[in-house]
């Protein structure tokens, strides 16, 4: 290519003309920028192009869906049926206030120093004992405390996944897991999560792609509420054992059932030691404790602990001690009995309100546990249209698309039925019905 040489004055004049036309801007001490790309000027600090310094591999696309959601949920006057939160009015505050006062009155230096990365040992013991009662074959050494099961998911991702690795997820599945695996540049294979567990598809994936792991919620799946029956759990484990597949079983809702107790967890039934269990107190008690757990073989726990050291050394002593005191007084089971009763009432109320106010434009199957109604829109109505219309009538939900690794879910949505008292839930469903009828009549 020919090299064109121009004088300094010609170049300066050319820059000046571009600047006069508003096509570029010059910053003293920083350089010349194409106008639209110039970083905004921070009033009193030197200009740092922050977003250009973030590592290119950071995937911000899907996290923006979440941010938008949270924004719409918190808008004034909106009844939020989006977030998967227990009702703060049902938090066992009487006990936690008392236990917290006792704890703070007798704190000593040892309580405020570092504790092992794997967690406060007495809590690990009492938790492992609780899990053993539920059929798990675990000791405290197989049980690690994490800052919410979200951190467990992070540790699993960090320890097992390299860019390009295949991960099987259900379709639909938990948004946070899609985001986590995508941010690690894993490739997601979708396993349909309705009806019978499609073992033929799963086996095909296992043979063809040699995936690193399967992420699955066998009990009260988020978002669709599905429970995998016991026979299918055994079949899944048999296939997994044959292919030495690692299964990550996420089970935040297993104790929140409104009819029969669900079947034993995969981790409890696991004959080959390939299941990693994730659990949390966020839904049974409250999310602000940031306390969850991972159950896995000791070798895996040790590797997770190394990784957790990089993040936070260990989860908060105070949360762990408080929880330990709560569990030691044997208060959790009574609490669970009372929230199950209340959430069942709310589920039934929302189910009949949905039939009354949202038929025939919306259909659902009754969830037997967990926090959500997973709904399908009929009559050609799209979830995006409904989201728009519902913002006007004053109710929010999570659009189905958020739960798919591919572009499905355009006619689905998730409603949380536990966070509010009955009148507010009823009003929320009425508002949803109003929005649906506007669209249905068009
Ligand atoms: N997994 C699932 C399926 C969830 O629904 C949630 C909470 N929305 C989490 C993990 C994370 O929960 P936490 O970090 O609060 O324990």
From TrEMBL:
SMART domains, per database record: HTH_GNTR (SM00345)
Pfam families in the record: Aminotran_1_2 (PF00155), GntR (PF00392)
Q: Name one GO molecular function term.
A: DNA-binding transcription factor activity
Q: Does the keyword Secreted apply?
A: no
For this protein, the record's Gene3D superfamilies field holds: Aspartate Aminotransferase, domain 1, Type I PLP-dependent aspartate aminotransferase-like (Major domain), Winged helix-like DNA-binding domain superfamily/Winged helix DNA-binding domain
Checking CDD domains in the record gives: AAT_like (cd00609), WHTH_GntR (cd07377)
Binding partners and assembly: Homodimer.
What is the name of this protein? DNA-binding transcriptional regulator, MocR family, contains an aminotransferase domain
Native species: Sporomusa malonica
């Amino acid at each position: 290519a020919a090299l064109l040489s121009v004088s300094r004055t010609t170049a300066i004049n050319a820059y000046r003309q571009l600047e006069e036309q508003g096509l570029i801007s010059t910053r003293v001490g920083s350089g010349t920028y194409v106008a639209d790309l110039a970083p905004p000027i921070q009033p009193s600090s030197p200009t740092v192009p922050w977003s250009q310094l973030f590592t290119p591999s950071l995937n911000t696309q899907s996290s923006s869906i979440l941010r938008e959601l949270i924004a719409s949920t918190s808008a004034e006057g909106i009844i939020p049926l989006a977030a998967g939160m227990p009702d703060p009015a049902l938090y066992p505050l009487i006990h936690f206030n008392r236990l917290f006062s006792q704890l703070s009155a007798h704190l000593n230096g040892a309580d405020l120093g570092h504790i092992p990365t794997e967690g406060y040992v007495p809590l690990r013991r009492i938790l492992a004992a609780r899990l053993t009662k539920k059929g798990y074959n675990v000791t405290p050494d197989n049980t690690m405390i994490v800052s919410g099961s979200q951190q467990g998911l992070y540790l699993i991702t960090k320890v097992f996944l390299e860019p390009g690795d295949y991960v099987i997820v259900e379709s639909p599945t938990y948004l946070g897991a899609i985001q986590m695996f995508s941010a690690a540049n894993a490739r997601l294979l979708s396993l349909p999560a309705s009806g019978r567990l499609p073992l033929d598809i799963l086996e095909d994936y296992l043979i063809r792609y040699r995936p690193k792991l399967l992420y699955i919620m066998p009990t009260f799946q988020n978002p669709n509420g599905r429970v995998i029956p016991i026979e299918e759990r055994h079949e899944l484990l048999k296939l997994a054992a044959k292919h030495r597949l690692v299964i990550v079983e996420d089970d935040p809702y297993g104790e929140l059932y409104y009819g029969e107790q669900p079947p034993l967890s995969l981790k409890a039934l696991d004959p080959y030691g390939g299941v990693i269990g994730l659990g949390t107190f966020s839904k049974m008690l409250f999310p602000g404790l940031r306390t969850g757990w991972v159950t896995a073989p000791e070798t895996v726990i040790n590797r997770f602990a190394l990784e957790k050291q990089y993040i936070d050394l260990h989860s908060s002593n105070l949360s762990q001690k408080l929880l330990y005191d709560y569990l030691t007084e044997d208060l959790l089971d009574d609490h669970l009995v009372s929230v199950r009763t209340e959430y069942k009432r709310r589920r039934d109320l929302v189910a009949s309100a949905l039939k009354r106010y949202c038929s025939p434009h919306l259909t659902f199957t009754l969830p037997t546990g967990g926090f959500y109604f997973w709904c399908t829109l009929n009559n050609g109505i799209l979830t995006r249209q409904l989201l728009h219309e519902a913002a006007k009538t004053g109710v929010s939900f999570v659009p189905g698309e958020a739960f798919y690794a591919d572009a499905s879910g355009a006619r689905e949505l998730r409603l949380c039925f536990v966070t509010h008292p009955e009148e507010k839930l009823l009003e929320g469903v009425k508002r949803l019905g109003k929005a649906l009828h506007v669209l249905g009549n068009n």
